[in-house]
Amino acid sequence: DTAAFYGYYDRVFAVSPTDSNYLVACGLRMTVSTNAGAAWVRLNPSNDVHLDNHAIAINPLHTATMYSGNDGGISVTRNSGVTWKNLGDGLMISQIYRIGCSQQDSNIIIIGLQDNGTLVYDGINWTRKTGGDGEACAIHPFNDFLQIASSQYGKFHQSFNRGISFAPLNI
Asked: Is the pLDDT of residue 17 over 60?
């Protein structure tokens, strides 16, 4: 099922411009049919593509090449969906929900991103620490070794080592 529980938000469908039997349906899951919908096979088995798909395009010259526009950016496959590459890798393009800054070191920052987890900046690199919707996050005002990250469904994670690693916080 491509829709799962919220297909109203992210359901898209494409027909190959050169082969009307080649169909792609995306939502929470991505599927393809090569026989006009009689049978469907899951694309993206390794979950390389963000789950919220809002656009899908099939290259008319090479149907193994497809593009997915999703909440995580734009991704491409050149092998019929076996593997995908996020074309935005390396670009810091995100919607920030919350920001936490260290009061001791202006280089230490934690951010919660819509659909792209929680990232920590250590003065040199941004590193993803949690997945899902990175929501509220904070750095303790007197001890920047203590950091909190949260995500959807009330999940919290804590770090005692300045954001190097996070563990679930059961509240």
From this structure: yes
Distance in angstroms (rounded) separating the CA atoms of residues 164 and 85: 26
Collect all residues with Cβ–Cβ distance below 8 Å to 170 and sequence separation of at least 6: none
The SS3 assignment for 14 reads strand
What is the three-state SS of 130-156? ECCCEEEEEECCCCCCCEEEEEHHHEE
Q: How many C-beta neighbours within 10 Å does residue 148 have?
A: 18
The DSSP symbol for 29 reads S
Q: What is the Cα–Cα distance from 153 to 47, expressed in whole angstroms?
A: 21
Which parts of the chain fold into alpha helices (H)? 7-10
The predicted model scores a pTM of 0.65
Alpha carbon distance 140, 162 (integer Å): 10
